[in-house]
Amino acid sequence: MASQKQAARPGKPAAGQGGGLAGYLATHKFELSTLLFSLAGLGVSIYMVIEHYTQNAYAGCPQNATFNCAKVTTSPESVILGIPVAVLGLAFYLFMTGINSPWGWRSKLPAVHWARLASIVVGIVFVLYLVYAELFLINAICVYCTSVHIITFILFALIVVQATLYGVAPKRDAA
User: Are 72 and 141 in contact (CB under 8 A)?
Assistant: First the structure.
């Protein structure tokens, strides 16, 4: 009899799970949640890149002493090596969307799974720097940046837990 850990492994159907869309959703909740969070991060990143290059005011972001998206996104810390942080975020979330797609999770190539883990570790380190910059260097908080930071943290937690419980490149049973 299969152990509980094995039956609950991402991508492996648990006993008694039906087929079709409902069965797929029931057995792939983890992979779908990482994909949905990646898509959410991608959406916010796209908006931030558009706002960066059009220099419009960020919708719904107040401009007071504490919350000021314009102050954060035009600060010297908003550009790294000549590249706007918004563009770096867009590239990161394009990659995360691909690597957290069903193709990425089903891949038998260990490099794909290692790339997912390494990318999210780099992403969370970068987020920690950006939070530090907002709080201590810029003295303002961008609500859009914060939403991306939260999404990155959630993805970090999900991916690290998955790697801890099942290994970085989980072995898939032959179909």
Answer: yes
